[in-house]
Design goal:
alpha+beta; Immunoglobulin-like; seven-stranded antiparallel beta sheet; 8 helices; elongated
Length: 1019
């Protein structure tokens, strides 16, 4: 890279030395330099692989296969897995890999050839012990290879399983170094000193000089064969080689090119043993070596996967190169410094950059650098000393604003003054002070306004300072670092460091807005007028929109990924771009308009916008704070957007932002149950069988997208357990514990780096076998056993209860018999004892009365005593009958009930209807006496309390029960009053029924009579 010096123009105390050197274009070319690709390396030293990697292939299922000196590895972008069939290969040293269009993986080894398809490995005996490499599939599906048994070799083709070889005579078989099929289907084979044009019957040979060496074959846009010869590219025209391109390092590192790859963009990639990687695009060459980060300078293989990634196999590992949506630029692309302070897109299509060392001007693929003198030595590119570094920092802090006026002049702030570039010359404006200038803007008339940190707002007209307004005059202790002219009024909008925006016209503040009016809090970084005339202000607290005096602010609460906004830019399609610490954000035009519409309607909850965030994996290098100088971003006339991160420069084309629309293949790789692994592909009848009592279950899955594997997202669901999809982020394992026996289906889906979901995903069925005690027969047996135990327990309990009841019944029977005997004894003593004595007393009173004169007063007294004795005797007689009704013992319960009803009716005058079933006559004496006592109590209650005029008594025998019902038409009562005078008798009736294991029923209501019913077992 060389520099050439141009004339300089010295004005006042400032001199700008124009220093120019030619560099490659870093905007107009469709293909970036190799250093501008995203590069990732996996090295042998880090344990990625055991040894050197020689070849790469990708099978239709999406996996990358790596052929190494110690076997085959399967790679999913995150982890490698040794191939389980390695031990069956002819050799573990893999020379070449090829994935056929039919899905077959061809494996060339140092001792033979094998192929693998649908889980079946085929080893070709025809190549046993031979080195097989240079695998190629032609358009007819034939597989071509070189087979070597040093010092001889042969060229072979495999069609439909049949093998045919040529060159056993030594014509070319052992010497073939490369194979190529052109767009017409013509096969070409290169050997050290010539090229064979293949024809099965008569191949044609085109020799080259003996001092040349054929390294690779390709073709140009016209279909002419290109031959890479010892550091030069030559065209084969009419059988003659003509040099068209000389590669750098032809005498050194590019003399041993072993692999060439033409990618889909037409770029040619060359890999050399010891020479690293060479990149040829748009007639430009750049290189990438181990010193730049390549895993090794010894390149063994090149491959482009279906997503467009370039893979490089080396002796030290594996490298991936990926084109970025946002392309970075550094010193390698011609920048004079990595510290860019501001950027302007000129109307002529060129780009102006204010850097820490001066000004860079890119035009027509060349960079012209203007360095400020004497602050930096003109033309010096020596290593920066500490003193020089301080000078660079002071320059960077002194001022860095750029602006292009309506006349096309580009204004630059310098250390001591301000000037402009016009037709390649720099002109200083002495009347305008230099220093720390944060922003410059201008109107349609060519007037300029300058935001100077210490001197305030400067107004420049016709290269003359016409007005100077201090920040204090505007009511500020801080300064403005964002300026823009209002196109509708000609006034000026100022954004302040401490956080306000103000509208100034004629040196006076006409409007002022802050957080209280809805402005985002914090520093105002950038202004932008939208197509609808609204003013957008990017600030530390969010993105604010001002129109017609009304401000609405969009921040993380409204859908942005974070709050701080560095700058905004509207692309040619109307989409809005916002630079933020969390990445570069795109808001679709329709989304923004919907948000503006809702926010403008002053709805309490503004719409949340949907955004797309581009981060580090897309080439976006974020910074925490916006730079101090404007402009922060520029849109070129071709629609590309230029901006600068903390170091270097970035450019993107919104019309060609790479979007990965390819669905990522999803695979379930392995099931691990209690540390034992199971291969889903080995499932029997489509289902993996797992042992009983699985405690810990791990399911490993993956998705095959190599653009940005770290941005792949997964969702999974275990049917039979999970009710909904589980979000696993970028985790590639699912974990379950203590699953019950049964059949399950595990499903997983994934999205690629652009958020495109493969919703079909992958699934695996598995079943956990039950332990013996989890089987249906064991469960059924257990249920039967439990039921049998319950039934047995129930029967034992019934027998105990029945025995207890029999014992109670016998006890009650004995008790009632004892009570009856006691009643009979008492009744007998009353009848035979007391009543006889009273009868004797009555007779003695009669005798005494006869002996007393008739007119004696004592006679009347004796008569009275005699009457009372008779009444007492009658009562005692009735009591004796009550204690032991003779009729009950003699004729049974039915006759005793009928007799008592007649006696009750005669003594009370209340008619009693009595209906008795003679079947109850055989009732046991104790039970019969109990029912008789109930009858006595019920009739007694009817006579004493009910004032009944009619009573009905029914004694019935049915099945194994006896029922007695007594009903009257008396006054009735509230059953809730039990416990009062009539209630005590009812309680006694209930207790009598309970003693006989019977039931007592009572129905009554005030004014509706009373009904009593007792039902007891027939004994």
């Amino acid at each position: 890279m060389r520099e050439r010096t141009r004339p300089v123009v010295l004005r006042a105390a400032v001199a700008l030395a124009m220093l120019t050197w030619c560099s490659r274009s870093f905007a107009s070319n469709p293909t970036p330099d190799v250093s501008q690709y995203a590069h990732t390396e996996w090295t042998v030293a880090d344990g990625f692989a055991k040894g050197a990697i020689y070849s790469i292939a990708q099978t239709p299922d999406g996996y990358l296969w790596l052929g190494t000196e110690f076997g085959v590895l399967r790679f999913d972008g995150v982890r490698t897995t040794p191939w389980e069939s390695d031990r069956l290969l002819p050799s573990s040293k893999i020379a070449s890999l090829l994935a056929g269009r039919d899905g077959t993986l061809w494996i060339g080894t140092s001792k033979g050839l094998a192929s693998w398809k649908n889980g079946k490995l085929t080893v070709y005996a025809e190549f046993a012990g031979q080195i097989t490499d240079r695998l190629l599939e032609d358009r007819s599906g034939a597989i071509w290879l070189r087979a070597l048994t040093p010092p001889t070799g042969k060229l072979c083709a495999i069609r439909n399983g049949s093998v045919r070889c040529w060159g056993e005579d030594g014509r070319f078989g052992a010497r073939i170094t490369t194979m190529y099929e052109d767009r017409k289907g013509q096969l070409w084979f290169g050997e050290p000193h010539g090229v064979w044009q293949w024809n099965q019957s008569a191949p044609r040979f085109y020799p080259v000089g003996t001092d040349k060496f054929v390294q690779a074959l390709d073709e140009d846009a016209d279909g002419v064969l290109l031959v890479l010869l010892s550091g030069t590219i030559q065209r084969l025209v009419d059988g003659t080689l003509r040099e068209v391109y000389r590669l750098p390092g032809a005498s050194g590192q590019l003399t041993t090119v072993v692999e060439a790859l033409r990618d889909r963009d037409g770029t040619l990639w060359l890999g050399a043993l010891g020479g690293g990687l060479t990149h040829l695009h748009d007639r430009r060459i750049d290189q990438f070596s181990q010193s730049d980060g390549l895993s090794s300078d010894s390149v063994a293989g090149l491959f482009q996967d279906r997503e467009g990634n370039i893979w490089v196999a080396t002796h030290g590992g594996l490298d991936r190169f990926r084109a970025l949506p946002v392309t970075p630029f550094t010193l390698q692309q011609g920048l004079s410094s990595l510290r860019v302070l501001s950027v302007v897109a000129s109307t002529d299509g060129s780009i102006w950059l204010r850097t820490a060392t001066g000004v860079d001007h890119w035009a027509d693929g060349h960079v012209t650098t203007y360095r400020e003198s004497p602050d930096l030595s003109s033309g010096s590119q020596a290593r920066v000393t500490p003193a020089d570094e301080d000078t660079v920092n002071s320059l960077a802090l002194s001022g860095g604003a750029l602006f292009q006026d309506v006349g096309g002049r580009v204004w630059v702030s310098t250390v001591r003054s301000i000037g402009y570039f016009d037709h390649g010359r720099f002109h200083v404006v002495p009347s305008v002070p230099g220093g720390r200038v944060h922003a410059i803007t201008g109107d349609r008339d060519g007037d300029l306004w300058v935001a100077h940190e210490t001197r305030g707002l400067l107004h420049v007209a016709g290269e003359r300072l016409v007005d100077q307004v201090s920040w204090a005059r505007l009511g500020h202790a801080d300064y403005a670092d964002a300026l823009v002219v209002d196109p509708s009024t000609g006034g000026l909008w100022l954004g302040f460091f401490a956080g306000r925006i103000e509208f100034v016209k004629d040196g006076e503040v006409r409007a002022s807005y802050g957080p209280a009016e809805g402005l985002a809090p914090g520093r105002v970084n950038d202004f932008r007028f939208g197509r609808d005339g609204a003013l957008w202000a990017a600030g530390e607290g969010g993105l604010s929109r001002l129109k017609n005096g009304h401000i609405v602010t969009l921040s993380s609460r409204g859908g942005l990924p974070c709050d701080a906004a560095h700058w905004t830019m509207e692309d040619d399609g109307g989409d809005f771009w916002v630079s933020m610490p969390c990445g570069l954000v795109r808001i679709a035009r329709a989304e923004l308009e919907a948000w503006v519409s809702r926010a403008g309607a002053k709805q309490p909850e503004p719409r949340t916008v949907a955004v797309t965030v581009f981060g580090s994996s897309d080439g976006v290098r974020s910074r925490a704070n916006a730079g101090p100088f404007s402009p922060h971003v520029a849109k070129a006339i071709d629609g590309r957007i230029w901006f600068f991160p903390l170091e270097g420069l970035s450019v993107m084309d919104p019309r060609h932002m790479s979007f990965n629309s390819m669905l990522p293949p999803v695979n379930v790789e392995q099931i691990t149950a209690d540390r034992v692994s199971y291969d889903p592909s080995s499932a029997v009848s489509g289902r993996v069988r797992l042992p009983p009592l699985v405690r810990d279950l791990q399911i490993d899955y993956t998705a095959l997208s190599f653009v940005a594997p770290e941005k792949i997202r997964f969702r999974y669901k275990l049917e039979g357990l999970d009710g909904d999809w589980q979000d696993a982020a970028n985790r590639r394992q699912a974990f379950y514990t203590n699953l019950r026996p049964g059949a399950y289906r595990f499903r997983v889906m994934a999205s690629n780096n652009s958020g495109v979901w493969n919703e079909a995903g992958a699934s695996v069925d598995f079943a956990i076998a039950p332990a013996y005690y989890q089987t249906p027969w064991f469960l059924a047996l257990s249920v039967v056993s439990v039921l049998a135990m319950i039934w047995t327990g129930h029967r034992v309990r019934l027998r105990i209860v029945e025995k207890h009841q029999r014992e109670i019944s016998a006890l009650n029977e004995r008790l009632m018999k004892a009570q009856e005997q006691e009643r009979m004894r008492i009744a007998g003593e009353l009848h035979d004892g007391v009543m006889q004595e009273m009868l004797a007393v009555t007779m003695m009173l009669g005798t005494a009365k006869r002996r007393i004169p008739g007119d004696s007063p004592a006679k009347a007294t004796i008569d009275t005593a005699q009457e009372k004795m008779i009444r007492v005797g009658m009562d005692l007689r009735q009591l004796s009958h009550g204690l032991h009704p003779p009729l009950l013992q003699e004729a049974g319960l039915p006759r005793a009930v009928e007799g008592y009803c007649e006696q009750f009716s005669a003594s009370t005058g209340v008619p009693v209807s009595c209906d008795c079933d003679d079947g109850a006559r055989e009732l046991s004496p104790g039970a019969a006496l109990t029912l008789f006592r109930v009858l006595q109590e019920a009739l007694g209650n009817a006579a004493k309390y009910a004032t009944a005029t009619r009573v009905t008594v029914r004694l019935t025998k049915f099945d194994s029960q006896v029922s007695m019902a007594i009903s009257d038409n008396g006054v009735g009562f509230d059953p809730g009053r039990l416990g009062t005078s009539p209630g005590l008798g009812l309680i006694m009736m209930r207790e009598r029924a309970s003693q006989l294991h019977g039931r007592f029923e009572l129905e009554s209501a005030p004014g509706r009579g009373t009904s009593v019913r007792i039902v007891i077992p027939f004994r």
